[in-house]
Amino acid sequence: MTVTSLRQWSPTAGWRQVRRRLLCLLPVNVALSIWYFTWLLAPERIGNPVLYGLLIVAESFNLVQAAGFWWTASKAKEPPPTRTDFGPVPVDVLIPVYNEELDVVEATVAAACRLAYPEVTVVVCDDGDRDELAAMAVRHGAEYIRRSDHSGAKAGNLNHALLRTSSPFIAVFDCDHVPAPSFLGATMGHFSDPNVALVQTPQHYANAADNPIAAAAWSQQALFFGVIARGKDAMGSMFCCGTNVVIRREALESVGGIPEDSVTEDFELSVRLRERGWRIAYVPTVLASGLGPEDMASYVSQQHRWARGCLAAVATVARSRLPWRQRAQFLLSSMFFLTGWTYLIYMTLPVVRILGGQQALAGATANQFLDHFAPYFCFSMLTVAIAGRGSYTFSAFALMEASFWIHISASIRALLRRRSRFVVTPKVGKAGRQPGAVAPALVALSVLIVSAVYGLIHSRSPATLNNVAFADLHISVLLVGIWPALVGTRSSRVRSPDLRLERAAA
Predict the structure, then answer these.
(1) Which of its termini does the chain have fewer beta carbons within 10 Å around, N or C?
(2) Average pLDDT for the chain
(3) How many CB atoms within 10 Å of residue 390?
(4) Do 383 and 414 sit in the same domain of this protein?
C-alpha cells in the first residue's frame, strides 16, 4: 500500500458511491458464477475423481465466502451520528503489558493519560514484573498493577485488573495502540442504549507507510474494518477485536469476565455476550493507532494465533444459541481461516498434471476453461477492490496466499484439540532475512518451479502449457508474498504518540 492510499483510507468516506458500484456488480457476479459453475459441474468435466472432488470443494468454499462477503457488504450503511447524550461516567483505561519495549508502552500510556474525558483512571497492567514500567506509569499519572500468578495470558491479566478496579466502563488498549484524545467522546455515547455491552473501533497500523509487511497486514485489516465490519454491525454481528474497545463492566460480569481458555479471547467473549442478548456497536472511525507486524516471523505468529483461536471457536459458534444470522456471520469469520486449504489445492493441481498426467477436469480445452473461469475470477477480485476502495492491495493478497500453510497448521491443531499458547506479537521487527519464517511457502515455491521447468522440457502440448502458466501464476504470487522475508526488513521506529496519531488522523 502506498503512503497516499494509506492516508486516504476512511471506513466511511465515499460509501454511497461504493455501494452503487457494488449493486451494479451484483447481477454481473451472479451471472458469471452461474456461467462458471454450470460448466464446471457438468458430468463430462470429471477427470480424476479425487482431483475433481478437491477442486469442487475448494471452489464451493470460495463461493460461500464470496456470497458471505456480498451479503455482509450489502448491509453496510452510513454510520449514525455520534451520540453525546450519555455520561460522563467513570472509565478505567486498562493497558495490558507483557514484555514490550518501554518506549512503545510509554507512548500509549502518555496518550491515555491525555484523554479528553472528565473521569478517567489509566491502569498499566504489568504481566512482566518490571519496576521501570511501574516508575514510568507513576511519572505519567497512571496507576500500576502487577500479579504473581501469570496464568491466562492477556485475558488473565485483564481479569486480574478488573477485580482491582471499579469503574462501570472499561477501555482496553494494547500497549502499542495510541488513543486519540477524542476516543471516549466518540464512543461513550453508544452506551446510552442499555443493551450495548461493547463499542469497537478500528485497528490502524501507523507503521504501514514505512514497512512492507505492516503495509500488507494493514491492507488486510482495512478491508475488514471497512465494508465488512460495517455490514456486520448493521446485522448485529460485529465482534470484539481485543483493543481500541470500551466495555460495560456489567456485561463482562454477566458472562464471567474475559475467557481465559482461548488464544482469541475477544472472539469468544463476543459469542458469550451475544448469547446473553447484549449488543456490540462499531464506530467506523480511526480513534487509535498502533504498530503492525514488522517482520515475517511476527506476522506468522499473529496470524497463527488468530487462525487457531477462530477455528477452535467454530464448534462453540455452531452450538451457540445465537440467531441464525449472527451464527452465520460468526461462522463466516471463523471459517475464513480455512482458505489456506484452497490455495494448497490450487497449487497442487498443475503440479500433479505436469508430473503425473492426472488432471481434475476432462473434456475441456484450456481456452474453454479460461472462458468460464477468468471472467468469474476477475470480477470477484474487482468487487473486493471496489469494496475496499483501493485499500486492498496485491501485496496483501500475495501475503495471504503465501501464508496458506498457517491456516493448514492452525486447522489441524484445532481438529486435534491441541492447546495453543498465547504469543504476544512483537512490536519491533528484527533486521535481516527470515527465510525460516516462510519455509513451507519456500517448499511450495520450489515444487512449482521444478514442475514448471520439467513440464516445459518434456512437453509443449496446450494442456501442459496451460498448467505451466497456472504454476507460474502461483510462483509470482508466492514470490511477492515472501519477498520481504527473503530480502529482510527493518523496524520503522514509529514510537512517539504524536507521530502515531498523526498517521491515524491522516
Answers:
(1) C
(2) 88
(3) 15
(4) yes
Q: 236 is written with which cell numbers?
A: 448485529
Task: Quickly count: other Cβ atoms within 10 Å of residue 406's Cβ.
Answer: 24
CA atoms of 326 and 279, how far apart (whole Å):
11
Report the distance separating Cα 215 and Cα 483, nearest Å: 14
With helix as H, strand as E and coil as C, how does 15-83 read? HHHHHHHHHHHHHHHHHHHHHHHHHHCCHHHECCHHHHHHHHHHHHHHHHHHHHHHHHHHHCCCCCCCC
Cα–Cα dist 23/501, whole Å: 35
CA–CA separation, 265 vs 225, rounded Å? 19
pTM of the model as a whole: 0.89
CA 99 to chain centre: 23
Structural domain range at position 188 = 91-294
What residues contact 467, with CB distance under 8 A and at least 6 apart? 349, 350, 353, 354, 359, 455
CB distance 355 to 451 below 8 Å: yes
Task: Write down the residue that cell numbers 460485529 correspond to.
Answer: 238
Q: Enter the C-alpha cell of residue 10.
A: 476512511
Q: Quick count: other Cβ atoms within 10 Å of Cβ 190?
A: 20
Q: Can you read off the three cell numbers belonging to residue 366?
A: 484450456
Question: In terms of domains, do 55 and 151 share one?
Answer: no
User: Where do we find the cell 451471472?
Assistant: 31
Instruction: Please give the pLDDT value at position 2.
Output: 37
Report whether pLDDT(8) > 60: no
Around Cβ 380, how many Cβ atoms within 10 Å?
A: 19
d(CA 367, CA 406): 34
> What's the burial of 148, exposed, middle or buried (CB within 10 Å: 0-12/13-18/19+)?
exposed
Q: State yes or no: cis peptide before 88, omega within 30 of 0.
A: yes
Length of the chain as a residue count: 506
- The identity of residue 453, as a single letter, is V
For the chain, the distance separating the N- and C-terminal CA atoms, rounded to the nearest angstrom, is 15
- The per-residue pLDDT for 426 is 60
Q: For position 290, which CATH number holds?
A: 3.90.550.10
Of 62, 66, 71, which is closest to residue 40 (Cα–Cα)? 62
Pair (243, 343) in one structural domain:
no
Confidence of residue 463 (pLDDT cuts 50, 70, 90): confident
Pair 58, 179 in one domain: no
| Nearest-angstrom CA–CA distance, 256 and 139 | 34
